[in-house]
Amino acid sequence: MSMIVTMKKRNEQGQLMIGNINAVTLTEHYGTPLYAYDVSQIRDKARSFKQAFEEAGTEYQVAYASKAFSCIAMVQLAHEEGLSLDVVSGGELYTAQQAGFPMERVHFHGNNKSRQEIHEALIAGIGCFVVDNFHEMEILAEETRNMDVEARILLRVTPGVEAHTHAYISTGGEDSKFGFDLQSGQADAAVEKALDHSGLHLLGVHCHIGSQIFETTGFVQAIATLYQYLGHWHTVYGFIPEVVNTGGGFGIRYTSNDRPLEPGAFVEAVVKAVRNESTNHHMPVPEIWIEPGRALVGEAGTTLYTIGSQKEIEGVRHYISVDGGMTDNIRPALYNAVYDAELANRTEGQEEKTYAIAGKGCESGDMLMYDLPLPEVSPGDILAVYSTGAYGFSMASNYNRLPRPPVVFVENERHQLVVERESYADLVRNDLPLSSNELR
Ligand SMILES: Cc1ncc(COP(=O)(O)O)c(C=O)c1O
Ligand SMILES: N[C@@H](CCCC[NH3+])C(=O)O
C-alpha cells in the first residue's frame, strides 16, 4: 500500500486541508480528538439525492436518518437542504424540535417506541410514524383515540432480502427484530388492523434492507417483493399506497477498496423499479421516500487524534496510541470496520512503517486499525481517520470516563464549533454523592 492512500487536499507544507482549513489549525483551536466535518460535502450529497428525484420527475422525500449523526446544527443543515428527518427515539425527536425542524417532515422509526415517545410525537405533530409491530400499533391507536387526532403511518415490513453487509447492519431479512414479516402473514394482519383503526391513516409501506450497500439489485428485489404484497392488499382490501419508503443503506467509501455508487444511481434504480411495479400492478406511482444516513454525512467527517505512546514488539506489531479510540468510534470493534488514515500534519518523513493504531480505552479490542502504513511517527503527530462522519459521534460513549470530543463544521474557509467537548464536570453532572438524597 502506498503512503498516501487518498486524494485528500494538502497545503504546500503537506498539511491536510478540511474544507479549505488546515486540519492542524483546527486541532490547535479545538484540541484532539476532534470530529471535523466538511459541510459542503454534506450539502453536495443531499443535493445529488434530491436532483436525481427531480430529474426522474417523481414525488419524493429524502429523509436524513439522523441516527448517523444528530446534533442541532446537523438537523438545521438537513432543514436548510430541504431534507426530511428520520428519528428513532424521543431524544432524536427532541433534538429536531430544538433545531426548529418542521415536525410535519419528521418520520418516527423504532422497534420499541414507548407510550410516552408516541404521545410526545403526536403532540409535536410529526409527519409519519413508521409502525414496526402490533404492540406499537395498539398504543398508537389508543393514543390517537384519547387525543382525538389522526396519525399518518407506514408499516415497516421485512422483504426477506439479505443485503451483502455485516450481519449487525443487515435488517431486511426474515430473521430481523424490525418490522412485520411478509411471508408469515404478519404484514397482512397489520394492514387489516391499520385500515380498521379510525385514528390511523395508512400511507404505505417501508423497508430497509441493510447498510453500506454497493449495488442496486437488493433494492430492486425488495421493491418487487413489496409489490407482490401491495398488489394483494389492493385486491383484498382495496388499499392503494400513497408512499413507498425503501429506506437507506447507500454505501460510502471508507477505504480505497470501496467503490460506492453515486446517489443518483440508487435513486434511478429505485424510481424505475417502483414505476415498473406500480404499472404492472395497475396502481398509481406513489410518492417515493428514501432515508440515507451514512451516505449524507459519512465521507464528510474526519476524526483528528494526537499520537502519544508507542510499543514495538519486534517481529510482531508496532502499536501507536491515539488520544481517543472506541469511545469516539466503536465501528472497528463492533463490526470490524476498516478505515483509511494518514498523518494530518505532514506527508514527509523517514521510511514508511506499518503501525497498529490503538485507542486509549482499557480494552485490548480498542484498536482502530491493525496495519496502517505511515512515515515514522513521533508523539504529537496528528492522525486523521477519514470517513468517520456517520455513526462515530452518534455511537460515542464515555467508557473510562473519557469526555466525548467536540464537533466542528468547516465551510467557506470558516470553522464553527457545533458540539462542545464534554468536560469532566459533564461526566459527573448526573452523579449524586452517597446518601445525599433521601433513602427510600
Ligand atoms: C430504518 C433505517 N433507515 C435508514 C437507516 C440509515 O442507514 P444508512 O446510514 O446506512 O443510510 C437505517 C440504519 O441502518 C435504518 O435502520
Ligand atoms: N450503526 C451502524 C448502522 C446502523 C445499522 C442499523 N440501522 C453502522 O455504524 O454501520
Describe the structure in your own words:
- The chain is α/β, with parallel strands linked by helices.
- The protein has two domains: 17-30 and 301-388 and 391-421, Lyase, Ornithine Decarboxylase, Chain A, domain 1 (Beta Barrel); 39-297, TIM Barrel (Alpha-Beta Barrel).
- 30% of the residues lie in helices and 24% in strands.
- The chain contains twelve helices and 20 strands.
- The strands form three sheets. Strands 3, 13, 14, 15, 16, 17, 18, 19 and 20 form a nine-stranded mixed β-sheet that branches. Strands 4-5-6-7-8-10-11-12 form an eight-stranded parallel barrel, surrounded by six helices.
- Helix 2 runs parallel beside helix 9 (263-280) and helix 5 crosses helix 6 (134-147).
- It is globular and about 70 Å long.
- Mean pLDDT is 95; it is low at 1-5.
- The structure holds pyridoxal-5'-phosphate and lysine (LYS).
- Lysine binds at residues 169, 171, 211, 331, 391.
- Substrate binds at residues 294, 331, 335, 363, 391.
- Specifically catalyzes the decarboxylation of meso-diaminopimelate (meso-DAP) to L-lysine.
- This is Diaminopimelate decarboxylase.
- Residues 40-297 form the Orn/DAP/Arg decarboxylase 2 N-terminal domain.
- Pyridoxal 5'-phosphate binds at residues 249, 291-294, 391.
Give keywords:
globular; Lyase, Ornithine Decarboxylase, Chain A, domain 1; decarboxylase; lysine biosynthesis; 440 residues; 20 strands; eight-stranded parallel barrel; binds pyridoxal-5'-phosphate; alpha/beta; TIM Barrel; binds lysine
- Protein structure class: alpha/beta
Beta-strand residue fraction = 15-25%
Contiguous low-pLDDT stretches (5 residues minimum) are 1-5
Helix content: 25-40%
Q: What characterizes the major β-sheet? A: 9 strands, mixed
The DSSP helix count reads 12
Radius of gyration: 23 Å
InterPro entries: Ala_racemase/Decarboxylase_C (IPR009006), DAP_deCOOHase_LysA (IPR002986), De-COase2_N (IPR022644), De-COase2_pyr-phos_BS (IPR022653), Orn/DAP/Arg_de-COase (IPR000183), PLP-binding_barrel (IPR029066)
EC number: 4.1.1.20
Binding site for pyridoxal 5'-phosphate: 249, 291-294, 391
Active site: 362
